[in-house]
């Protein structure tokens, strides 16, 4: 049985056409936990996050949130998702976006210097990296208890990656995170445990050697 305050996925299977991408994948995340999701390009990480959020209907999944079965994550109001692709509208003021997405922790996010400095702009007035950073904060600070982050560190300068990590740490008592990125050293730093997707299956990773064993990083000398 799953604990209360847990996102739980079991038996997730999906194929595109005849290509099997996920075969009975299991994944869980509790409040207070950061789960790092790793895997080679095309292994199915984004597919899995889309399945959880509900924008992709898999061939099979068994999903529960706080013990209760759910079909589409976004309908629960408890799951937020940062997709790989840009999602913010270009012509809406950043301040308005934060008013739409963030309620509980708005004061906290508005007290962050680089967010406050950009509130009066629209996304099209910002660089690609800053747009991504704003998107990341909109999702981190949304009211959802479980946050799915697809490549939050890509395009972002190291100084801001540190900021993202710090804010994840700050929010962790109240939220659970599932995060994937190919800056795997960052994923190792920020995560309490690591799950690797390989050949459609999930593997528990405990050491860097495990990552080499599964062919995610070059074998270690
Ligand atoms: N809509 C689609 N139609 C057909 N095939 C798809 C579709 N979306 C993804 N795929 C294929 O499914 C596989 C898994 O894609 P996915 O985006 O989930 O991988 P990923 O692990 O997130 O990869 P990356 O690390 O490169 O972002 C890839 O081979 C991809 O080409």
From TrEMBL:
Q: Where is the ABC transporter domain?
A: 7-217
Q: Name one Pfam family in it.
A: ABC_tran
Say if the entry is tagged with keyword ATP-binding.
yes
Q: From the record, give the transmembrane residue ranges.
A: none
Write down the PROSITE patterns for this protein, in alphabetical order: ABC_TRANSPORTER_2
The GO terms describing molecular function are: ATP binding
Which SMART domains does this UniProt record tie to the protein? AAA
Q: Which UniProt keywords apply?
A: Amino-acid transport, ATP-binding, Nucleotide-binding, Transport
Q: Which domain of life is it from?
A: Bacteria
Q: Which family does it belong to?
A: Belongs to the ABC transporter superfamily.
PANTHER family reported for this sequence = HIGH-AFFINITY BRANCHED-CHAIN AMINO ACID TRANSPORT ATP-BINDING PROTEIN LIVF
Provide the protein name: ATP-binding cassette domain-containing protein
Native organism is Olivibacter ginsenosidimutans
């Amino acid at each position: 049985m799953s604990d209360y305050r847990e996102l739980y996925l079991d038996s997730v299977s999906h194929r595109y056409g005849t290509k099997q991408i996920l075969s009975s994948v299991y994944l869980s995340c509790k409040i207070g936990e950061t789960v790092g999701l790793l895997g080679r390009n095309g292994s199915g990480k984004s597919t899995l996050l889309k399945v959880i959020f509900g924008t992709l209907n898999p061939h099979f999944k068994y999903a529960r949130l706080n013990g209760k079965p759910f079909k589409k994550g976004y309908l629960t109001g408890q799951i937020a998702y940062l997709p790989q692709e840009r999602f913010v509208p270009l012509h809406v003021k950043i301040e308005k976006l934060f008013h739409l997405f963030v309620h509980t922790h708005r004061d906290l996010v508005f007290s962050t210097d680089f967010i406050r400095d950009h509130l009066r702009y629209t996304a099209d007035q910002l660089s690609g990296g800053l747009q991504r950073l704003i998107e990341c904060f909109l999702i981190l600070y949304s009211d959802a208890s479980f946050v799915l982050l697809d490549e939050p560190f890509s395009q972002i300068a190291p100084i801001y990656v540190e900021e993202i990590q710090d804010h994840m740490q700050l929010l962790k008592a109240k939220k659970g995170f599932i995060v994937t990125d190919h800056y795997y050293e960052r994923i190792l730093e920020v995560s309490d445990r690591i799950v690797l997707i390989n050949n459609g299956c999930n593997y528990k990773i405990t050491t860097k050697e495990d990552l080499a064993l599964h062919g995610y990083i070059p074998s270690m000398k």
